[in-house]
Design goal:
This protein is α+β, with helices and mostly antiparallel strands. It is built from ten helices and eleven strands. A hairpin with a 2-residue loop joins β10 and β11.
């Protein structure tokens, strides 16, 4: 995991764009050490996020030293399914299968199904909750996007987008091995991963009104493209045309992504691509006026 611009002024005071009831957060510590080991079943990630969102909404503060209520947290399974887009299902067996891998993480004092498997009951350990709420660096999350996330890769990309999107110069880099983690065939090439990665980024861009320049790096750590750098553009960020066009010599290709789709561009043509988009936007605005 590689994140730039994490000093005290890294996060701007822009609007979050997240409804209060949908807002929750998770620390970069979780992303680095715990999320990659949750396993290959996307339902485990779905249930974890449902539990964390529910917990955050019931805490008085999100500080690492916050005191949890003595009582356990409880949530109807239908509420969890509705949160991650499976409300039409009447079967909680997939949720039940996700509980043992979650218990195995050691994050919970207990995690159970109650009342004929219709309710979830849990309590994070105090140490785990302190880690999850660590405020040195964290992702501010939006539960309303969860129904759109259908794979582990979707969740992984979203976490990184949420971690950096409010920074002055939002950027993150991911090794391809991290992107292929949890897949049936680890160590996949960029050509095998690209469609899923770009689709996940498009979902995030559409949800948060972002655009992304995906830089494909080849540094020799594996054959072909070995990691990607994602530069996010939003209103109020400090990415300029010249900064976006400034790239390292090992960049072999660039893909532009927004909520409408993606377009491949040559590294040397980033500046002219930006100019064309600005001209087209100005022309549309002129016609609308």
């Amino acid at each position: 995991m590689d994140i730039e611009d994490i000093g005290p002024d890294a996060v701007t005071f822009c609007e979050t764009g997240i409804a209060t009831d949908d807002m929750y957060r998770v620390s970069a510590l979780y992303m680095q050490f715990w999320e990659p080991v949750l396993g290959a079943d996307v339902m485990v990630h779905r249930v974890f996020h449902a539990l964390l969102h529910h917990t955050c909404r019931r805490l008085k503060t999100w500080q690492p030293d916050t005191i949890q209520p003595v009582e356990e947290y409880r949530m109807r399974c239908i509420e969890a399914r509705r949160l991650f887009g499976l409300e039409r299902s009447t079967d909680n067996r997939a949720i039940a299968r996700a509980l043992e891998p979650l218990r195995a993480t050691g994050l919970f004092d207990h995690l159970d199904l109650l009342h004929g498997n219709h309710w979830l009951a849990w309590r994070f350990s105090d140490e785990a909750l302190s880690m999850l709420l660590d405020n040195v660096q964290y992702a501010l999350l939006d539960a309303s996007i969860l129904a759109k996330l259908t794979s582990i890769l979707d969740y992984r990309i979203y976490l990184f987008v949420a971690l950096v999107r409010r920074m002055r110069k939002p950027v993150f880099a991911l090794d391809l091995d991290l992107l292929s983690e949890g897949r049936a065939q680890p160590g996949q090439s960029w050509s095998q991963l690209s469609a899923r990665v770009l689709r996940a980024l498009r979902t995030c861009c559409a949800h948060h009104d972002l655009a992304a320049f995906v830089l494909l790096h080849e540094t020799g750590s594996r054959r072909g493209i070995d990691h990607i750098e994602v530069r996010l553009v939003r209103d109020g960020c400090v990415w300029s045309r010249d900064l976006l066009a400034k790239i390292d010599p090992e960049v072999r290709g660039v893909v532009f992504v927004d909520g409408d789709g993606h377009e491949r561009i040559r590294p040397a043509e980033i500046a002219s691509f930006i100019d064309r988009r600005r001209s087209a936007k100005a022309a549309r605005s002129g016609r609308a006026a």
